[in-house]
């Protein structure tokens, strides 16, 4: 067998590699230099962001990562240009012309979440450690990444929400302001004095630790319910975090209940009367009328309450109008006894 042609090919590859070896070594050195430059730029961005007052931790993390990635991408392009002299950035752009469209469609959601994350970090509708509510999820913001935001719920679970969802939809930020107003409806009896109950509720709220005096607590009548007069107690707290809200609710409601009970204010609860369909008392309505779940009666059915009351009144009236019989015989017996 003739291996001369194969040997010539191997020698040609070896000579080409030896010619390319200086470029490869120089390219590797350049890439290592760009890597350390990227690390230095990353550290510089971190120091600059740390010097600013009230700096955004999420934005600082984003800028650190972007600066590192951009410098590293520049280093890769320079390295490839050194290793492959025929390669130019223009050729890369032309190669990515059609492929970029396909990549854009394939990674549409990723790019959308990335841009939404950047906008969230720049506009800062909420920050790390804020307590937010999004749909059925509520908790404390742990991280704001370029793809998603993670929150820790109050029962100790982690929820990962894509940034595009938070950027497009409505989000409630519970800790956006220093103060927050709480409220609760208290029902008192119709026979109680509303002014006295209102004053007692205000007195109870003012005596609770953590309730602000400015804005002052309020007690407003909001409803004349079926079994109570509802007074809405409203008070402000600071800070408005979940633990403070629960503690304020507990202390305020306990103080209001104890104060109203101590002063004889009734706290009624709804009452309900149940009539069974198999009842046969005469005071249980008119059975001759059609009722839900009870067919209309025929023949002898129990009388209604009004009919029974009317019959009793007529009987009583007739008994009072009838003349009383005379009873002389007992008197005669008594007189005979006297004579004896």
Walkthrough of the structure:
The protein is α+β, with helices and mostly antiparallel strands and 340 residues long. The protein folds into three domains: 11-96, no CATH class; 117-173, SH3 type barrels, CATH 2.30.30.60; 178-296, Alpha-Beta Plaits. The protein has nine helices and eight strands. The chain has helices at residues 4-51, 57-83, 89-106, 108-123, 163-168, 194-206, 242-262, 305-321, 329-339, and strands at 131-134, 137-144, 148-153, 158-162, 172-173, 180-188, 218-224, 229-237. The strands form two sheets. It has a five-stranded antiparallel sheet. A three-stranded antiparallel sheet has the order 6-8-7, with helices on one face. Strand 2 (137-144) and strand 3 (148-153) form a beta hairpin. Helix 1 (4-51) packs antiparallel against helix 2 and helix 6 (194-206) crosses helix 7 (242-262). The radius of gyration is 44 Å and the shape is elongated. Mean pLDDT is 80; it is low at 278-283, 290-294 and 335-340.
Series of H and E elements: HHHHEEEEHEEHEEHHH
Global mean pLDDT: 80
Report the sheet-strand fraction. 5-15%
The quaternary organization reads as: single chain
Q: Could you estimate the helical fraction of the residues in percent? A: 40-55%
What is the total domain count?
3
First-residue to last-residue Cα separation: 175 Å
Query: What name does CATH use for the topology of the largest domain?
Result: Alpha-Beta Plaits
Largest sheet: 5 strands, antiparallel
* Number of strand segments: 8
Side-by-side strand order of the widest sheet? 4-3-2-1-5
InterPro entries: LSM_dom_sf, MS_channel_C, MSC_TM_helix, MscS_archaea/bacteria_type, MscS_beta-dom_sf, MscS_channel_2nd, MscS_channel_C_sf, MscS_channel_CS
Biased composition (Basic and acidic residues): 328-340
Family: Belongs to the MscS (TC 1.A.23) family.
Keywords: Cell membrane, Membrane, Transmembrane, Transmembrane helix
């Amino acid at each position: 067998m003739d291996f001369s042609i194969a040997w010539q090919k191997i020698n040609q590859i070896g000579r080409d590699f030896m010619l390319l070896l200086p470029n490869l070594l120089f390219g590797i050195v350049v890439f290592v230099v760009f890597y350390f430059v990227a690390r230095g730029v990353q550290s510089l961005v971190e120091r600059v962001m740390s010097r600013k007052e009230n700096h955004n931790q999420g934005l600082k993390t984003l800028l650190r990562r972007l600066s590192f990635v951009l410098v590293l991408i520049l280093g890769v392009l320079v390295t490839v240009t050194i290793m492959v002299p025929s390669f130019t950035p223009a050729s890369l752009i032309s190669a990515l012309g059609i492929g970029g469209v396909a990549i854009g469609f394939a990674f549409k959601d990723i790019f959308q979440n990335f841009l939404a994350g950047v906008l969230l970090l720049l506009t800062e509708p909420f920050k790390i450690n804020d307590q937010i509510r999004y749909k059925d999820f509520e908790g404390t913001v742990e991280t704001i990444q370029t793809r998603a935001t993670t929150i820790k719920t109050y029962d100790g679970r982690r929820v990962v929400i894509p940034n595009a969802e938070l950027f497009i939809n409505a989000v409630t930020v519970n800790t956006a302001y220093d103060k927050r107003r709480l409220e609760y409806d208290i029902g008192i009896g119709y026979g109680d004095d509303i002014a006295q109950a209102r004053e007692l509720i205000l007195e109870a709220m003012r005596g609770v630790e953590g309730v602000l005096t400015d804005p002052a607590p309020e007690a407003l009548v909001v409803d004349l319910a079926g079994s109570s007069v509802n007074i809405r107690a409203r008070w402000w707290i600071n800070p408005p975090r979940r633990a403070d809200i629960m503690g304020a609710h507990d202390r305020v409601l306990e103080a209001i209940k104890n104060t109203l009970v101590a002063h004889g204010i009734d706290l009624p609860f709804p009452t309900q009367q149940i009539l069974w369909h198999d009842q046969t008392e005469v005071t249980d309505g008119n059975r001759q009328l059609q009722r839900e779940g009870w067919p209309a009666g025929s023949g002898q059915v129990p009388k209604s309450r009004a009919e029974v009351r009317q019959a009793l009144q007529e009987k009583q009236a007739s008994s009072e109008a009838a003349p009383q019989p005379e009873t002389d015989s007992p008197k005669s017996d008594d007189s005979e006894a006297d004579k004896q």
